[in-house]
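Dear colleague,

Thank you for sharing your sequence with our group. We've completed the structure prediction you requested, and as agreed, I am returning the results in plain text so they can be pasted directly into your records. Please verify that the sequence below matches your submission; if there's any discrepancy, let me know and we will rerun it promptly.
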Amino acid sequence: MIETEIVELSPEQTHPLRLAVLRADTPTKEVVFPEDTWPGALHLGVLHNGEVVATSSWIPREHAGRPAIQLRGMATAHAVQGTGVGGLLLAAGCARYQAAGETTVWARARDAALTFYRRHGFEVEGDGFIDQTTQLPHHLVVRTL
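Please find the predicted structure tokens below.
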């Protein structure tokens, strides 16, 4: 694990990694999510040597008709993937929301990332689908806090 610091970010600070990691292999280069500025939206990042190397966005949004937090825009710089940075960021966000009394975090996860999410306590829910924005296979993943 590299030396890191978890910080709050502005939506704009998430954009470079969203572009480099989440849009590199997709037909769109759009990195602004409508939910970025919703009330209660939180953007967390990991700093390493002053550089943002991982980002995540946490959006209050129901799941299955119940209050929940949606994880969006989870991205880790290619150079530090596999070092534990993404897991650290995910754990920090989940811990923050658990302490606030939330009970559920969910995401629309790329199939290529399902092993990562399962390793961190998420369960796959339902059938897979092709995300319209990325044109990549996805599944819903859910974690009870």
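Summary note from our side: The beta strands are 5-8, 42-48, 51-60, 69-76, 104-110, 123-130, 137-144.

Kind regards,
the structure core
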